[in-house]
Structures are given as structure tokens and as C-alpha cells.
Amino acid sequence: MSFRDTGPLIALVVIVGIFAALSPGFRTLSNAQNIMDAAAVLAVVTCGVTFVLMMGSIDLSTPGIMGASAITVALLVANNRNDNELGLLGVALAILVAAGLGCLSGLALVLLKVPSFMTTLGVSAVGLGVATLLFAGVQPNISDGTLSGWAVDRFLGLSTLTWIAVACVLVGWMVQRYTRLGRYAFAIGGAEEVLALSGVNVKPYKVAVFTMAGAFYGLGGVMVTSQLGAGLVQAGRGYDFSAITAAVVGGTLLAGGRGGVLHSTVGVLLVTVLTNGLVLVGVSPYWQGGVQGLIVVAAVAAAVIPQRRRNQVTK
């Protein structure tokens, strides 16, 4: 393992130590549980973003897909707008809608040959449009006991949402480590031309990665709905930048071919701990966005030093 692999983990330990020394409240068990719960949705969303980044693509569709999923699930489970009570089936359908939007991003990328930056930005707008139409000016508040319980029911001190996030990280790691999709996502980001010359049709795998990412975003939207008790069009606001920040800080390269789910999970914890610690030591929340921006620039700069020294170019 290189320093680029262990560096984020070392940084996490150092930051935890600094905040533990500065704030007694940071050292409490309840605060550790709060950090884990706060990281749950971001961890799930970052799992999806990680696979896209491993291919060397960028995904900005997160806000739109999460918004569409949040409104969809709120209207399919027990709510104040209609008589639907589909329960977990409604959750599955909402995730399926999100996967469909992710698939749309992948198809636009491989068929229209439009850069992923633009295709996913367009799909985000589509998702927000769908969510706004379903919202119809009346907020759907959920009354489904199972979905509401995800945010409040606890096991071993952690909410159900946190355990869902842990399961997603494990699933993402297994897909990355043991499936052809995960291996090819790495290969596409590292040397797509070589993979294509070896006889592999990369297009279906690109579409599959975006579809899987959309499913992760959809689950994230469902989790936000559980937290808020209502479906909101803006349920995914800001999660695109936060997820990319966490993935890059954890060691997943924007250029693709390096990193992975576990790397990005460390990045999620690092960002969440930093946010929590800054609040506890009295730093204004309005500075947190700026701090995240500085961190992602520093992380990208550190990650590309070897390539810059080798190639002597900046793209």
C-alpha cells in the first residue's frame, strides 16, 4: 500500500485526535453515534459516485435523481396525498425509477457521445422536473411506520439508516472486488483503449455503472425522506459536490483507475468528522462549504503530483 492509500486514513486519525483534544463533547460516545448517523446518506450516495469516478467520468445527476426518488417514495408509501400504502414495494419502485434515470445518463454518454459532465447535468434537470411535477405544489408527508422507523429505530446505538449505509458499502466493495463490472470500471478508467482493443465492448458496462449509481442515489433519496418525514424536490441538494469531495479526499481519482468504495468511505468519515468537529469547536457552519472546497482542491493536487511530474502537462 502506498501513502496515497493510507494517507486519508492517517489524516482521519489525526483530525479525530485534534478535535478530541479541543472539544470534550467530541470525545463522547453519543457524538460518535451522531457522526455515524450523519454520514449514512452521504456514504450511500458516495458509493454510486465512486464507480462513476473509477471510470474517469463525472456524475452531476445526484440532486435530480435523489429528488425524483424522494417524491416517488413519499407518494407510494402511506402519505397525506393519496391512499397508496405500498410499503417496501414503494421503496423498491422509487429506487427503480432512480436506476432508470441513471441508465438514461449512461445511454446518453455511449450513444450520443456527449461528455458525462453534460449528460448527467441534463439528467439531473430531468429528475428535478419529474419531482416538481409529482410534487404538484403540495408536500407529501409520509405516515408509513417502517420507512419512518429507519431514522429513529436503533440497533447497537446506531440508526437503521446507518446499518443500511454499512450494507451498501459492503455490497459496493463486493461488486468492485469480485464482479466483472467492478473490474472493468477500473479498467475503463485506467486504459479504456487497451480494454476495447482486447475485445471488450465497454459500452454496456458504462451504462451498467451509471444505472447502479442511480440506484444508490435513489436509495439515498429514500433515506432523506425517512429523515425528514416528507418528500422534497430538493432532497438531494448539495450531495453531488459532497459525494465527489468525499470520494476524492478518500483517494478515488477524478481521472479514474484508482481508489474504490473503501477509499471513498474513509473520505466520507473524514468530511463528516471535520464538519462535526468544526461545529463543536465553534466555527461557523457558513465556513464549512469553503473548507470542503479547499480540501478537495488540496486532495486533487496531491493525487495528481505523480502524473504531473511524469507527463509535465496539466489537462
TrEMBL record:
InterPro entries linked: ABC_transp_permease (IPR001851)
Record flagged with keyword Transmembrane: yes
Transmembrane stretches, start-end: 6-23, 35-54, 60-79, 86-111, 117-135, 155-175, 207-226, 238-255, 262-280, 286-305
Family matches, as CDD domains: TM_PBP1_transp_AraH_like (cd06579)
Keyword Membrane among record annotations: yes
Main location: membrane
Subcellular compartments: Cell membrane
Keywords linked to the UniProt accession: Cell membrane, Membrane, Transmembrane, Transmembrane helix
Pfam families with a match to the protein in the record: BPD_transp_2
Entry membrane topology: Multi-pass membrane protein
The protein, known as: ABC transporter permease
